[in-house]
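Q: What structure does this chain adopt?
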Amino acid sequence: MPIKLILFDLDGTLVNTSTDLTNALNYALKPFNTRELTVEETIKLVGEGITRLIEKALENENHQQKMQAIERFLDYYSKHLLDFSKTYPGVKETLEILSLYKKAVISNKRENLSVKLLDGLDLLKFFNLVVGSDTTSQKKPSAIPVLYILEQLHVAPDKAAIVGDSSFDIEAGKKAGIKTIAVTYGFRDKNTLIDADYTIDNFYDLPSVLDRNSLKLI
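A:
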């Protein structure tokens, strides 16, 4: 079925944000005398939004302490969003190639931070819509943000696909009835992506996957 709309995850798919997320998390956790986390440890925790990230990192602390850590994270991260974050190879070039498709970002990062990050990396211009964790009532792996995008951009589920690096993206896509394409270079192990309809090892491969599997635009 020809595709008219492509939904893209942000962190771990379009942009490598691992170092900035790690720095913000370590800043948030500093008052709680926890050891500093590595990038490898941090990326295993991210993906479900900032609140869940802090809850997992401070699972033994009380609600007030977790709220304090969230405030510290947001304060630091909003000021250091673009210190080390950069697009993955081939992202800008491929988005140019896919110019005839409608495109949206669907992230579990808050909407204002998602927009700020995309704008700072000169990616915002490629997208018709940006949806964050706080845009709709639920976030991935719920189908609700996917269905919201389909409604806003007037596209049927059988004419859309989602591209992401985690099981949250795949699950959200399947619940909404759209095609799923997993990238293997992101934050998640390849073994967690086996339920995707298609898999690519780098972003440059996306147009050929769309074409090879009859998902191309008409």
